[in-house]
Every structure is written in C-alpha cells, then in structure tokens.
Write a structure and sequence with these properties.
This protein has about 190 residues and is an all-alpha fold. About 75% of the residues lie in helices and about 0% in strands. The protein is built from 9 helices and no strands. α4 runs antiparallel to α5 and α8 packs antiparallel against α9. The longest helix is centred in the first third of the chain and has 25 residues. The chain starts with a helix and ends in an 8-residue tail after the last helix.
C-alpha cells in the first residue's frame, strides 16, 4: 500500500493531479493494477490517504510549535509561526498543494476542514491561555482566521504555483495579524 501511495505522491508532485491516475501509480510502483484495486477501489481513496498523511504531519508540526520550548510570545509571532509552518510544508510537499486547494472530493474537503477546525481550536486555546487574545474571544474568530488563511494560501499558490506569491503571502500575514489584533487584550499594541 505504501508503495502505491509513494508513487502517487511522486506523480502528483512532478506532473500534477491529472497525471496521478491509479494506473500511473501502479506502473511507477511496479505493481500490477489489479493489486492496486485490492487496496484502493478508486483514485479518491488514494487522494484521501495521501491527505491523511499530510494532515498527520501538519498536526505534529503545529504541536511542536505550540508545545515546544520556545512557543510564540506575541500574536504576530503566533501568526507568523503558523503561516511559516504551512508555507514551508506546502513548498516542500507540492502534492499536498494539489490536493489541499483543489478539494476534488468530499473526503478531501472533510479532511482539510477537520484539520482547520482542530488547529483553530488549538491555537485559540493557546492564544487565550497566553494572554495573546482576550479570554472572551469567541472560537469563531480563530475559525474565520483559518478560513481566510486557507483562501489566501490558495490564491498565493495559484499566482505562483511552486512557491506561493510573496506579495499575496505578505498581505496574508498582515490581514490575519490585523484581524486577530482586534481581539487582543490591548488592540492598539
């Protein structure tokens, strides 16, 4: 199963979504196509399994940042830490970009939404507990920040597919920091 997933991921990264068929993944993995169907009934199952890998990796990275020895001490620092983490991950994993933003199936959409929901809640608790956001800040605020962030990443990688557009990414950070700052204990800071 891993050989099929690894092959599909390589094809996605090198040649894009349309090229990453089950047949192409089987050929690259050196596995008969009939064997592929033993593990995956269709391409969407492969896509979902690849996305699960990416989501698991991203969750681990977020946990390292927020629970590490030097967690972000400012609201802007928290925004930068999460944006940098996601940006670096997307740049290093172009197959993730292919799946994350196109959301070609309900399964992919649900995986991204579940990640956003869980990570928004984690960051909301982190920011409130560290005094970066007021205690009465609604969870909706962080959920909206993640929706905005996803949309702006999507735009950045459509404008400049491999690296994300620097101008869009700069505005991405600025917009998120300014929005979240309105919920800081002292919004003028």
């Amino acid at each position: 199963m891993n050989a099929i997933l690894d092959a599909a991921e390589q094809i996605l990264a090198a040649d894009g979504y349309d090229a990453a068929t089950l047949k192409a993944a089987a050929e690259r993995a050196g596995i008969p196509i009939a064997s592929v169907y033993h593990y995956f009934s269709d391409r969407h199952q492969v896509d979902a399994e690849l996305m699960r890998r990416h989501v698991d990796n991203l969750e681990d990275l977020v946990n390292e940042i927020l629970g590490g020895e030097n967690p972000p001490a400012t609201l802007e620092g928290a925004v930068d830490a999460v944006v940098d983490l996601m940006l670096d991950y997307f740049r290093e994993n172009p197959s993730c970009v292919e799946l994350w933003f196109a959301r070609r199936s309900d399964a992919l959409r649900e995986l991204v939404q579940a990640f956003d929901k869980a990570t928004a809640e984690q960051l909301w608790y982190f920011a409130r507990n560290r005094g970066l956001l007021r205690p009465d800040t609604p969870l909706l605020v962080m959920q909206l920040a993640f929706e905005i962030g996803n949309r702006l990443f999507d735009v950045a990688f459509r404008v400049t597919p491999v690296t994300g557009d620097d101008a869009v990414l700069a505005e991405h950070r600025r917009l998120l920091a300014a929005y979240l700052r309105t919920y800081a204990p002292d919004p003028s800071v």
